[in-house]
Amino acid sequence: MALLARLGSALLLLAAWWLASRSVDPRTLPSPEAVAAFLVREAASGDLLRNIGVTLWRVAASFCLAMATGAALGIALGRSRAADRLLDTPLLVLLNTPALVITVLAYIWLGLTETAAILAVALNKMPNVAVILREGARGLDPGLEEMAQAYRYDRRTWIRHVLIPQLEPFAVAAARSGVSLAWKIVLVVELLGRPNGVGYAISYYFQLFDVAALIGYSLVFSAVMLAVDAVLLQPLDARARRWR
Amino acid sequence: MALLARLGSALLLLAAWWLASRSVDPRTLPSPEAVAAFLVREAASGDLLRNIGVTLWRVAASFCLAMATGAALGIALGRSRAADRLLDTPLLVLLNTPALVITVLAYIWLGLTETAAILAVALNKMPNVAVILREGARGLDPGLEEMAQAYRYDRRTWIRHVLIPQLEPFAVAAARSGVSLAWKIVLVVELLGRPNGVGYAISYYFQLFDVAALIGYSLVFSAVMLAVDAVLLQPLDARARRWR
Amino acid sequence: AGAQQASAPAPLKVGLLPFGTVSWEAAVIKAEGIDAAEGLSLEGVRLAGSDAARIAFQGGQVDTIVSDLLWAARLRAEGRAVKFLPYSSTEGALMVPGGSSLTSVAGLAGKRLGVAGGPLDKNWLLLRARAREKDGLDLERAAQPVFGAPPLLMRKLESGELDAALLYWTFCARLEARGFRRLIGADGIAEAFGVEGPIALLGYVFDEALLQREPHTVAGFARASARAKQALAAGEAAWAPVRPLMAAEDEATYATLKRAFLDGIPRRTAASERSDAERLYAVLARLGGERLVGAAATLPEGLYWDGGPNG
Amino acid sequence: MPAGAEFRRAAADPILTLTVRRKVYRPERSEPVEAVRDLVVSVRGGETLCLIGPSGAGKTTTLRILLGLDRDYEGSLTTRPDLRIGMVFQEPRLLPWRTVEENVRLSLPRPERRQSLDALFDELGLSAWRDRYPRALSLGMARRVALARALALAPGLLVLDEPFVSLDDAAAASLRAAVFGSAGSRGAAVLMVTHNVPEALAVADRLLLLSGRPASLVADVPLRTPKLDRGRDWGEAMRRDLAAKYPGTVAGA
Amino acid sequence: MPAGAEFRRAAADPILTLTVRRKVYRPERSEPVEAVRDLVVSVRGGETLCLIGPSGAGKTTTLRILLGLDRDYEGSLTTRPDLRIGMVFQEPRLLPWRTVEENVRLSLPRPERRQSLDALFDELGLSAWRDRYPRALSLGMARRVALARALALAPGLLVLDEPFVSLDDAAAASLRAAVFGSAGSRGAAVLMVTHNVPEALAVADRLLLLSGRPASLVADVPLRTPKLDRGRDWGEAMRRDLAAKYPGTVAGA
Ligand SMILES: Nc1ncnc2c1ncn2[C@@H]1O[C@H](COP(=O)(O)OP(=O)(O)OP(=O)(O)O)[C@@H](O)[C@H]1O
Ligand SMILES: Nc1ncnc2c1ncn2[C@@H]1O[C@H](COP(=O)(O)OP(=O)(O)OP(=O)(O)O)[C@@H](O)[C@H]1O
Ligand SMILES: [Mg+2]
Ligand SMILES: [Mg+2]
């Protein structure tokens, strides 16, 4: 049912695109067929899979890193007023430092390496996660907190059964907006210092002004993300929401 | 008190930077003085103010646009299952479309205009806001909802006194992470099609590999954002949180 | 042209990049009133980078930009009728530190090698082909290529993290001013493929429609461009309005930038440019394949514009 | 028609009639729960009706349906169109981000928001707390605010879900006086869920006794003895009587 | 020392002593509220203590301090180090995202989590609801779960904040039996806040009567009559007696 609705809305989108592409210059809005043809060619050459694969790996690695550190930091800031006062300013500065600057500095200091790339992405995304989870940690239910304290919940129990369920909506928001952010930054990072990946491909085709390739790559990545969302995030989310 | 802590932590940051810059090549990590000197020069020429001003205006315009549309969409999706099913896929696709692609398409379709630039940024940021507020709208307290219905709260009262206070933490998270996102995307947008603004300046100095200028511009912008945060967001937030 | 001169001069919008030499030329044209003399009014449109320039051209926001031959060829092959007017033959080079022990391409084996523009950069493809044919060396495997943004690579070369870097000419000029030297230039590489003279891989790109609509304006602009170059070649005086645009931090950088620019002024006929370009294009099509050059295996017909002063 | 007859007719006509044939909760991933079956509640103007039933029977469910908050049931609901209902939920359900006074005012229709509430707050002992947020109240105080909210509306029907628990006897007595005094003077009807049988016997015109889940009507007991004549002994006797007849609903003393 | 003496000594020694000189809430941006003043509560092993005081007096505040949940007060708290305390809050406070059974088990120390709870759930009438989430419970049922959670812990001290409201008489009576039965058999002490004077008179070994806010001790009334001998008449008399002596705390019937 949900799948059907998703499929339906995807088809609707496709139809709208197809119709729009009839009426304008195919170079500014290529038709779905043209994009599909590009993708078939690119897949046949093996580039598509390779680029998507390498980008996906970078997104995954930096996403996990950023989620873990960002969540820990955000929760700490949300719960401790002192920590918040001390770290709020650096956090905001980091949050507002452009991806370009962070990336360039990471490449300068750590060399043009994979580690630098992944660290740069994680560092870009981390403050975002922290800011979102801080709001979550600020709003914890004091009644449940007292209950947990009265019953001497140990740390693990508290985290798993009291903290995480309350942070869940914030974590989902951070994850959803975060995956996409990570991948957007990976593009910048790949553009500046990696010889492969979707970011490289996009900047390459952008040089050639191949709009079909741009749309093709970004759609394939969206599709991958939709799949990740459907297979991973949504079931997790549904499980966490069973009680509602 | 809070201001003092902020100032203190900013000074700490500065001291750490100063110390680090002593021990490495000034071309990879310029000293605070060098950055300050650059800023003084740039300010004297009038470029600093002009660039910051124009970027700020773009950030503000697109931020407001994105917050308004994103919040409306997110709330609708969070409250209506049918809307969510229908629009979830397009939302995720838009969320995962790289800034580069959206920007290029906006410029191609709407021309290299200010409108296109602002629209491109808003379109980049909007799905993020929607995704965060959707989580908020999903978790509304059913008890209060029933109360409001039983007492026949009119639409305005419900929005102002029931809905908004519950969405507040999500809205703050979206705004904080959103302002920074907007400004990061403005950089891309300026890079690709505007002859002024901080993004233009940063790409200019990146070509020259003037790290002092990169850091200088990004710090000034961070400072502006810190000021906006302190003057606007924090008091709003504090007001909304009085009851805790 | 006389009829037009009487009325208001026709405007022509030219895309200018912060470090592009087009803005130098435009500055001279404006400063010496060459555009008015040729019956047009040159309007510079500032753009942040080459990507922005391409968007602007595609979207019709500017009438002409300077871009590379391959891009123009690809556009034409894909059905957008554009014309190419040679602008400059100045090209990138493989740079090494002044004190480097490297003296030949063959010596690159095992070295860390920065490449601007990525694995499909045309100079990198040509360099690889040359190394394979002349030295029997597969650079992609034998050396350690590192791809990245040019400023970043320049910095890495300076800090010693790279042994050599294949960079665009403005970066090369700056490095030269700091005591780095060229191991081999793009022209040197191209020679290996039978190219006869300096070949202008950069040129103004116009829409054919504009040419048909306003042939006099475009021709006037071509003449204005040539006159500006002559003025710059003639002596120091013309450089006055250009100097502030160059972001040259010292005299040495200024001098090398200036020399490199002047060396690149195209002086050959369109026909000879074209035949050399065809030769190079064939090599590139073979090496880079469809991804580099698009569907056309040979240089599309009618790409070069013959109406210019060289034609 | 003389005014007296009009009033009597209004009092005899039901202002609200609810018929629930069946109400079944169907949670995802677990067994359905039948909460109400074959229950008819009709409230006449000015009368006080007490709903008594075991814990978990379906009383709150019935009230939610009656208020139109749950439409997923088999049955029908008719209400006099202009009927104002003031509701006191089983939990206080205050807006935590609004002060006590704002909580009360927000529940009034816009034109009535500025009316003076001094007398009401005084009567409920809340005057000192008008500007506080609900977090700073004890549970009993929060319940009083919830009552104030319902009374401020000047409702034609007051629906109360166990309103007088968490209150000491003195406070409960004075609140009862406030509620029934105000309802009586305005001719308003009261529908109250309670577990407190003596309380119900003291204030009700009619008792509705419910079975355990699914809640269905066990007995509709009119109490014809005038309220002033209901002494302690009458209450004891009545209670024993009910406990004997309906042991599933009313416990012996 | 013989075991009997040991037991007596333990029963005589307080297992918990709380002295509150002052407890003042200081909300930002509004007046401070003094909630407790000069209150000493000491609980001896095995005894049942009832705390009675008007609504908003400071009873819940006292319990929070006693449990160590609020340390911002003037005074001192000493507890026997191995004392297990089971708490029933004034609201159920269940984890809405965990089932009834998980809510109960999570409150046990890790090694005891797998023990059988069948008898307990049976006794409290919750067996059918073990796998449900708290949203699907009526308030009375949720309160029973909160009680189950406290009892499962086998506590040495059971602290109850008005545990038997929102329950019909039959359910309340059976719960009372469950609580005091279990406490009695394990020699556990019970500290209960209640507004229900007859209830307190039926189960307490000692009453602590509190004044209105700020709560302070009005009287410490030991009830020496054995529980089995406390008939209805004794209760009535006792209540009249208390109401006469402490009219601010105990209302006349
Ligand atoms: N959302 C729900 N999903 C499933 N079952 C529910 C839900 N809400 C209530 N129930 C069930 O319906 C029955 C009636 O609940 P209700 O709240 O109406 O009881 P009640 O008579 O008000 O009890 P109490 O006196 O304890 O408040 C209970 O068995 C309860 O478990
Ligand atoms: N967080 C708080 N901030 C300010 N005042 C508070 C706070 N919590 C409680 N109070 C005040 O302290 C007093 C005592 O509250 P408490 O909850 O202890 O009362 P109680 O005796 O338990 O009342 P009840 O019988 O109604 O539950 C009340 O007047 C209340 O308004
Ligand atoms: Mg109920
Ligand atoms: Mg209390």
UniProtKB/TrEMBL annotation, chains A, B:
Q: Which UniProt keywords apply?
A: Cell membrane, Membrane, Transmembrane, Transmembrane helix, Transport
TM ranges:
56-78, 90-110, 211-233
Q: Primary place of residence? A: membrane
**GO cellular-component terms in the record?**
plasma membrane
The cross-references to SUPFAM superfamilies, in alphabetical order and at most eight, read: MetI-like (SSF161098)
| Keyword Cell wall biogenesis/degradation set for record | no
Instruction: Give the protein name, as stated in the record.
Output: ABC transporter permease
> Which species is listed as the source?
Methylobacterium terrae
- Taxon lineage: Bacteria, Pseudomonadati, Pseudomonadota, Alphaproteobacteria, Hyphomicrobiales
UniProtKB/TrEMBL annotation, chains D, E:
Entry-linked InterPro entries: AAA+_ATPase (IPR003593), ABC_transporter-like_ATP-bd (IPR003439), ABC_transporter-like_CS (IPR017871), ABC_transporter_ATP-bind (IPR050166), P-loop_NTPase (IPR027417)
UniProtKB keywords? ATP-binding, Nucleotide-binding, Transport
* Molecular function GO terms recorded: ATP binding; ATP hydrolysis activity
Look up keyword Amino-acid biosynthesis and say if it applies: no
Q: Does the keyword Nucleotide-binding apply?
A: yes
* Record domain ABC transporter: where: 15-237
Q: Which family does it belong to?
A: Belongs to the ABC transporter superfamily.
Name the UniProt record assigns to this protein = ABC transporter ATP-binding protein
Q: Tell me the organism.
A: Methylobacterium terrae
Organism lineage string: Bacteria, Pseudomonadati, Pseudomonadota, Alphaproteobacteria, Hyphomicrobiales
